[in-house]
Amino acid sequence: MKIIYIDSCILNHSSINDILSEYEVTCYSHISLFLDALPTFLVREKMLIIVDCSIEFDMKMIKLKKLNYLRSVSNGFVQLILFSDFSKVRVGFIEMLLSPNYSLDKSLSIEKLKNVIRKISNLDQKSSNDVLANHQNEQKKLTQSEFNYIFYLLHGMSTIEISHELKIGIKATYILRRNIKAKYKLKSLTKLFSSLVYE
């Protein structure tokens, strides 16, 4: 099985190669470098793509969608793992956008990470879902409405504009914002926005 590790911090590349030395690991600093290196034909070998969400948020959302597309046309050969700190709202947003097969928190020990990847590589999709239930991130995930709120917020829309786009009342829009801030322990809209863009 081929493992692709995507992380903007190049220092992590050698350590991940050491940790997963029993596999063929290829590291990339950006999703676009990986997508450019892919052959134009369909992927026909088992591939596990680990995306570390410390990748800067300025990457185009279309690149995340391309990863999803690659997985959808691969007939189960490609599986995505989101590997990050799930206490950040930005990671919750990317998780909704990417819809990974698995979400693993960085708080896992190295040995647990190895075991999880070993289980993924040895089992089919249905079995590995059962085995990995204990390793999935425990944080509350964003709902579709919360995801849409953040999406429109990132596009510079005001609360009134967001409520029109979502076809809900302004009070419901404020409730969405309040729920997002509560899930990620943010005190203000400014903190929410800065945690999406700068952290």
Could you describe the 3D structure shown?
α4 packs across α7, α4 crosses α10 and α8 crosses α9. This protein has 199 residues and is α/β, with parallel strands linked by helices. The protein has 2 domains: 133 residues, Rossmann fold (3-Layer(aba) Sandwich), CATH 3.40.50.2300; 54 residues, Winged helix-like DNA-binding domain superfamily/Winged helix DNA-binding domain (Arc Repressor Mutant, subunit A). The chain has a 5-stranded parallel sheet, with helices on both faces. The chain has 10 helices and 5 strands.
In the CATH hierarchy, the third-tier topology of the largest domain is known as: Rossmann fold
Quaternary:
single chain
Order of adjacent strands in the largest pleated sheet: 2-1-3-4-5
Detail the poorly predicted runs: 124-138
CATH class of the largest domain: Alpha Beta
Q: Which structural category fits the helices and strands?
A: alpha/beta
Distance between the termini: 33 Å
Topology, number of strands: 5
**pLDDT averaged residue by residue:** 76
One letter per element, helices H and strands E, the order comes to EHEHEHEHEHHHHHH
Principal-axis shape: elongated
Helix content: 40-55%
The main pleated sheet reads as: 5 strands, parallel
- From the 3D coordinates, which CATH architecture of the largest domain would you assign? 3-Layer(aba) Sandwich
* CATH superfamily annotation of the largest domain: Response regulator
User: How many domains would you count in the coordinates?
Assistant: 2
How large a portion of the residues is in β-strands, by DSSP E? 5-15%
Number of helices: 10
